[in-house]
Amino acid sequence: MKRIEVVAAIIRRGDKVFATQRGYGPWKDYWEYPGGKVEEGETREEALVREIREELATEISIDQFLCTIEWDYPDFHLTLHCFICSLLTDSLCLNEHEAARWLSAVDLDSVNWLPADYQLIPLIREKLAGADNQVLRPL
After folding, report:
1. pLDDT value at residue 77
2. At 63, which helix (H) or strand (E)?
3. CA 81 from centroid of its chain's CA atoms
4. How far apart are CA 97 and CA 102, in angstroms?
5. How many Cα atoms sit within 13 Å of 1 on the Cβ side?
6. Does the global pTM surpass 0.85?
7. C-alpha distance across the termini of the chain, in Å
8. Residue 80 burial class via C-beta count within 10 angstroms: exposed 0-12, middle 13-18, buried 19 and up
9. Per-residue pLDDT tens for 86-138?
10. Taking phi first (over 0 means left), then psi (-120 to 50 degrees means alpha), and beta for anything else, what does residue 94 get?
11. What pLDDT is attached to residue 129?
């Protein structure tokens, strides 16, 4: 089975996270956290910064590693490395996605997530619940 390694930015602003809707491919219209494939010679962090520049035309701070999800899709195995991030600029441009939303913990179930991204919901709810009490430390 084909294996794909990707990174995802859980971009947090206060008590909300940023979610994007895919605009292409077999999983079109499903929701995901922005990010993409790690290219040869890149660290995961370098790949994430590059992908966010390409997809959203913005800059991020990678604040904390969250987890790695392993997921089998019908045609490939996905390794998804997830990082809590914050925006360094206020501008966001959807270069590859057809829609985006800022979701609170209670809104996380309001969109149709990609299966691997859906696995993150309990962890993200936990992070958002502690948003007021937690100080994130940069990597």
Report:
1. 97
2. strand 60-72
3. 9
4. 14
5. 11
6. yes
7. 33
8. buried
9. 999 988 999 999 999 999 999 999 999 999 999 999 999 998 887 544 444 44
10. beta
11. 85
134: three-class secondary structure by DSSP:
coil
Integer Cα distance of 120 and 104 in angstroms:
14
Please give the Cα distance from 33 to 95 (Å, whole number): 14
Domain ranges of the chain: 2-129
The Cα angle at residue 123 between residues 121 and 129, in degrees rounded to 5:
100
| CA–CA distance, 23 with 26 (Å, rounded to integer) | 10
Whole-number Cα distances in Å, 81 to 70, 92, 102, 106, 112: 9, 22, 21, 24, 20
**From CA 62, how far away is CA 23, in angstroms rounded?**
25
Checking if the pLDDT of 63 tops 80, the result is: yes
Percent of the chain having pLDDT more than 70?
A: 94
CATH entry 3.10.20.10 includes domain 2-129: no
Angle, vertex CA 90, rays to CA 52 and CA 41, nearest 5: 20
From the list 45, 6, 10, 8, the residue with the least C-alpha distance to 124 is 10
